[in-house]
Write a structure and sequence with these properties.
It is built from 28 helices and 22 strands. The protein has about 800 residues and is α+β, with helices and mostly antiparallel strands. The strands form five sheets. A six-stranded mixed beta sheet has the order 5-4-6-11-8-7. A six-stranded antiparallel beta sheet has the order 12-13-22-16-20-19. The N and C termini lie far apart (about 70 Å).
């Protein structure tokens, strides 16, 4: 029944929240329920993936057990935690709840029906296709039967040569890890075994697989809606907690409004609105980052106020951040920065800090180990390309050992730094403030320099600051940057690690080499920089309105608040009428690609035509293999791949651009002559998506599809010399009551006719004749060269002629192939 697992997860989150409501308060209880359920689902999915059992019944049993365990742990925690006084329900809290619900409903409504992107070639398509593969097979690594040599008649040596497989030396760390490239985003891990491994990290595809098992193939990407909902709730709660942490009572009184401003800014931001429906990991990473920051600050506030649940909140914060590290490599870098900042505040020896650091280090170490074991080629190439780490190629065992040693060193360093003298410990917060301030200054200088004199090959309109200004407007960026500067100067010592991380994120963003085109490369801002700036801007706006209320009164504050919101939220809304915000890239992909690949049997070989237009290999080879389980060849066929498959009776299909109207065609091959084909299905592939624009916001849709034609190669071999071989099931051969007859075919001069019979088959008396029109000429038999071969000489024919064979056998007449060859 669709949606059962989703309903069970929602019921679990609400049950946990209800059990902890009178122990932690409504907001924290809801956060614990949602975070705990999210982490439980993620852990079950990743564990079943490692066990190669990510399938319907194991998932149901695993999630049921995890949810039951989560509720039991909550009951145990409830008995240990003291009760707190219930929060009073006032008009203000009711109005805040209504406002938050309306904004959440608006944001979710704008993001419903996310893109089901199935094309290969870029990250977003690989995530979706890998998710479909996981749901279909239960495992991460696809096995290509063509590469494996398991497809009947297809010689493995020729396939390996086509993929340009290079054997590594036995001691090479790449042996059995990365031996070639199947297509963009898919590495050949072990060519001999046909085993592939997807690039990137795998938590988001796991969520897609779980959604498919619960809701079906076409709705596998709907977790994107959940990720945004979690991000929005965390943004509201984080901004509210930061406002409550201030010393100004006017700001504390307006904490809920500050949270609503952050929520509204995220819900209506044009870039976030588009990327939230696009299948990239920034969406999940954003939710993990915001949730971790909020839960961590709630843990610190609970400890300072003497409330219970400190370890629970801090532990969930560290695990949420680690879940982000299971999602994107950038959050591994952020985790290292945050862990270093937490180490540099040893004077703040709070329980929240210790638990956060431990869970963060342990969880991130597990994420890195997972990445090394399952994303080895991508992990180290990304570290070199994006973070300028020297290109290292250790063995997987060495990399795992380094990771565990580094994690242990961080935990031991924390124990050692607690014993620092008081005077040295007091210097650490100052050092963090100085370095964070310098990072903000450097980010501002780099951004302004690139805006007017780019230090890269891209134009001024493609620089980071220019892109953010286009999508956000100047006011929120200015408020966000100034808000971070104020936080660096005034934030409480327990907040400094997060302020330091926020400053590092802004600097990392400023140092990016521009945006090649939008929206695709602008997605990098959505995971971290954009939420950081929006939350900081909301907090600073709250400070400004609080000061205005203290000096001029509530009426002036209300008016100023309204003007600020209008100046902030209205200018970016000018972009929303564009059609790209109200459509979804490749929205019809599941139905359209299913209609193509349903005509391809699972035991057949699928090729792609290289002739333009309609070169579908780069776009559709990945979904053919991963989502639909077809034996696709992702490179041009070389050697005797096609010939071997046809001889062995393996059906061979060709996906082409569909520019010919004939139902029977010829596929030209320079190496082997033209193959004869027959059209199986035709159609128009509608691939509507947002245009790509360099230095501007996309405004219109483009159709990247076109006509397609699926052809089946005839079971016949045609040589450039004029010789050919026909096999049973060829369209050029028709069975008769007494034998077979071919269509009129051009016969080369000086050729002979060969009929190959089954070995140890029935004895038959076979005669052959040449038919031209109504006339028939019996052919002269030649001496046999083998027991399973019959030979006849062919006279010169003035034009195409049919071959007719008559057999008298004890049973049914069987034959292997019929050839016309030149006498040698």
């Amino acid at each position: 029944m669709p949606g059962v697992l989703t309903a069970l997860a929602l019921a679990t989150a609400l049950a946990v929240a209800a059990l902890l409501r009178d122990r932690l308060g409504p907001a924290c209880a809801l956060g614990v329920g949602l975070a705990g359920t999210f982490l439980a689902v993620s852990a079950v999915g990743m564990l079943l993936l490692d066990l190669q059992r990510l399938q319907s019944w194991p998932v149901r049993a695993g999630l049921l057990g995890a949810f039951a365990a989560l509720v039991l742990l909550t009951l145990a925690a409830r008995r240990r935690l003291p009760a707190i006084a219930p929060a009073l329900r006032t008009r203000h809290t009711v109005a805040t709840t209504i406002g938050v619900v309306l904004l959440l409903a608006c944001g979710v409504g704008l993001r419903l029906s996310p893109s089901p992107y199935l094309q290969g070639g870029q990250d977003q398509g690989i995530y979706v296709n890998v998710g479909h593969h996981m749901a279909r097979t239960g495992r991460l690594r696809p096995v290509d039967r063509v590469l494996q040599g398991a497809l009947r008649g297809v010689p493995q040596a020729d396939v390996l040569a086509a993929y340009r497989i290079k054997k590594h030396s036995p001691g090479s760390p790449l042996a059995g890890v990365r031996e070639g490239r199947w297509t963009a985003g898919l590495h050949i891990e072990d060519a001999g075994a046909g085993r592939l491994v997807p690039a990137f990290f795998h938590l988001m595809p796991v969520w897609f697989a779980l959604a498919e098992l619960d809701w079906g193939f076409a709705r596998s990407t709907w977790p994107l809606v959940l990720f945004w909902l979690l991000s929005a709730l965390a943004a509201f709660a984080l901004a509210r907690r930061l406002a409550l942490a201030g010393v100004d009572p006017h700001l504390q009184h307006r904490a809920d409004r500050v949270g609503i401003v952050a929520l509204a800014a995220l819900a209506l931001h044009p870039l976030d609105l588009w990327i939230s429906t696009f299948t990239v990991t920034e969406n999940l990473a954003r939710a993990c980052l915001l949730a971790a920051a909020w839960l961590s600050l709630e843990a610190g506030a609970a400890e300072r106020q003497g409330r219970a649940g400190v370890a629970l909140l801090a532990g969930l914060a560290g695990l949420c951040f680690a879940a982000g590290a299971f999602t994107r490599g950038s959050l591994v870098a952020h985790a290292i920065v945050l862990a270093g900042a937490l180490l540099l505040v040893p004077g703040d020896a709070s329980r929240a800090r210790r638990v956060l650091l431990r869970t963060l280090v342990v969880g991130t170490a597990l994420a890195v180990v997972q990445a090394v074991l399952h994303s080895w080629p991508y992990f180290f190439s990304a570290a070199s390309n994006h973070f300028h780490v020297p290109r290292l190629t250790p063995s997987a065992g060495e990399a795992v050992a380094w990771t565990l040693v580094a994690a242990a060193a961080l935990l031991l360093a924390d124990l050692g730094l607690r014993r620092l003298p008081t005077r040295l410990a007091a210097l650490a917060p100052r050092l963090l403030r100085i370095v964070a301030g310098l990072m903000l200054v450097a980010a501002a200088l780099v951004s302004l320099r690139d805006l007017f004199a780019p230090a890269n090959e891209l134009g001024p309109d493609q620089q980071v600051l220019a892109v953010l200004l286009r999508h956000s407007g100047p006011l929120p960026l200015l408020l966000g940057f100034l808000g971070l500067a104020v936080a660096v100067r005034r934030a409480h010592a327990s907040f400094l690690p997060w302020v330091f991380l926020a400053s590092a994120i802004v600097l990392f963003t400023a140092l990016k080499q521009g945006v090649r085109y939008e929206f695709y490369y602008a997605r990098y801002f959505v995971a971290d920089a954009l939420p950081v700036l929006l939350v900081a801007a909301a907090c600073l706006s709250g400070h400004l309105i609080a000061r205005l209320a203290a000096r001029r009164g509530s009426r002036w504050a209300a008016a100023g608040f309204a003007v600020l919101l209008l100046a902030w939220l209205v200018p970016p809304l000018r972009l929303l009428p564009r059609e790209v915000y109200w459509t979804r890239d490749l929205a019809d992909d599941p139905a359209q690609l299913a209609s193509i690949f349903e005509h391809v049997p699972e035991d057949s070989l699928l090729l792609f035509d290289d002739r333009a237009p309609g070169r579908w290999r780069g776009l559709l080879a990945a979904p053919a293999l991963l989502s639909f389980g077809r034996n696709a060849l992702a490179v041009p066929p070389g050697g005797h791949i096609v010939e071997g498959a046809l001889k062995a009776g393996t059906p061979v299909f060709l996906l082409s651009g569909g520019w010919e109207s004939d139902d029977r065609q010829r596929w030209p091959s320079a190496a082997h002559g033209p193959w004869r084909t027959r059209v199986v299905a035709r159609g128009i592939y509608r691939a509507v998506r947002a245009e790509t624009v360099a230095g501007g916001v996309p405004g219109r849709l483009v159709d990247g599809g076109g006509p397609w034609e699926l052809q089946q190669l005839d079971r016949s071999i045609w040589r450039s010399s004029g010789a050919f071989s026909l096999y049973p099931e060829s369209v050029f051969v028709a069975a008769t009551a007494a034998g077979l007859v071919t269509e009129p075919l051009p016969l080369p001069a000086g050729a002979r006719l060969e009929l190959w019979l089954p070995a140890r088959g029935r004895t038959c008396d076979v005669t052959a004749a040449l038919r031209i029109g109504d006339a028939a000429q019996e052919l002269t038999p030649l001496p046999r060269e083998r027991d399973d071969q019959l030979l006849w000489s062919l006279p010169a024919a003035p034009g195409p002629a049919a071959l007719a064979l008559t057999a008298r056998c004890e049973g049914a007449f069987a034959w292997r192939w019929l050839s016309v060859r030149r006498d040698e």
